[in-house]
Specification:
The protein contains two helices and 28 strands. It has three domains: 120 residues, Immunoglobulins (Immunoglobulin-like); 87 residues, Immunoglobulins (Immunoglobulin-like); 91 residues, Immunoglobulins (Immunoglobulin-like), CATH 2.60.40.10. By secondary structure, it is an alpha+beta fold.
């Protein structure tokens, strides 16, 4: 008698184990995942099974239960949820973002339990940028750009500067799930154009571009004369001195000679028919009224006597000597008479 009871218990145990094992083999297959807001999704069991009863729940919240041909839908899902009483497949309509979660089906005939995580996302539209301030001074201010969408969920963000992707660095910081870009102590190379790309598993969108106005300089000044690096010129030459400075807004330029300001402004100083007395240091002084910064560059110009004048100076003693010799020869002839 005891042996029969033991055998019966083993048979029941094996049956239960087979039921649990079959449970592990069954999976839930959504008709789409992620699913789109407003659409309908069907959660089917694979491989297909025949269920006479069971229930569906999401994150511990019951959706519906069924027994034979009868099914009962819980509040919050009335009119949206239904089950195929034969296969146990759940159909959920008019999806919302809040329908995302872990869906679970359980049945006692046969013994079954399976789950799947369903994501419901909203398509992205109207990606926009907001800038805290657009007029910045180099190395003195930080630029903050925020990216937002009017519609969309499960968002990820990517930032572009022109055709290059912006990545985190010492001066580049991302906050609020990468939806905000902060550039610390902006440089002249941080002007943009910046744009934001927002995307989720079903859609994407790109904002219009924005630029920072970064004021900088004046610095990296250069001074050339007649387009050359030469500093020695002949008397009588015409000189065009060009002064350049990296500056935004453009720097105000003032010229100086031998430490004194001259009545000349702008990028060009022109001198005509120069003489040796115009040799000396020429300076270009730059001022940026936005950054309140000054800079200058100086070059020393030497004006040499012209070659014609030097030749005349060299020939003059020879001519005088020749004249004196002729004069002597004349006197000698006179006395010979």
């Amino acid at each position: 008698m005891e042996q029969r009871t033991c055998r019966a218990s083993i048979v029941v145990l094996l049956t239960l184990l087979q039921g649990f094992l079959s449970c592990d083999a069954v999976e839930i297959q959504p008709s789409m995942n992620p699913a789109v807001v407003g659409s309908t999704v069907t959660l089917s069991l694979t491989p297909s099974v025949s269920l006479t009863s069971g229930n569906w729940a999401v994150d511990e919240t019951f959706i519906l239960t069924w027994l034979g041909e009868q099914q009962a839908v819980f509040p919050g899902y009335s009119g949206r949820a239904s089950v195929n009483v034969t296969s146990g497949a759940l159909m959920l309509r008019a999806l919302t973002v809040s329908d995302s979660g872990l869906y679970q089906v359980q049945s006692g005939h046969p013994l079954l339990k399976a789950s799947v995580f369903l994501t419901v996302v909203e398509p992205i539209s109207n990606v926009t940028l907001r800038v805290n301030r657009s007029d910045l001074i180099e190395h003195q201010a930080s630029g903050l750009i925020s990216c937002s969408v009017s519609i969309g969920s499960s968002l990820s963000f990517r930032w572009m500067n022109g055709s290059s992707e912006v990545t985190a660095a010492d001066r580049v910081q991302f906050t609020d799930g990468n939806s905000s870009l902060n550039i610390v102590r902006v440089s002249r190379y941080d002007s943009g154009p910046f744009r934001c790309e927002a995307f989720n598993p079903i859609s994407n969108g790109t904002s219009d571009s924005v630029n920072f106005t970064v004021s900088y300089g004046p610095d990296n000044m250069r001074l050339t004369v007649n387009g050359l690096n030469a500093t020695v010129f002949s008397a009588g030459s015409n000189l065009s001195m060009l002064c350049l400075a990296e500056s935004n807004p453009p720097a105000q330029l003032q010229w100086g000679f031998r430490g004194n300001l001259v009545n000349a402004t702008g990028t060009m100083l022109e001198l005509f028919h120069v003489i040796p007395d115009q040799s000396g240091p020429y300076s270009c002084l730059a001022f940026n009224s936005r950054t309140n910064m000054y800079s200058n560059v100086t070059t020393h110009i030497t004006i040499s006597r012209s070659e014609r004048l030097q030749a005349n100076v060299f020939l003059l003693p020879l001519l005088l000597l020749a004249g004196f010799a002729l004069s002597l020869s004349g006197h000698c002839g006179y006395f010979s008479l």
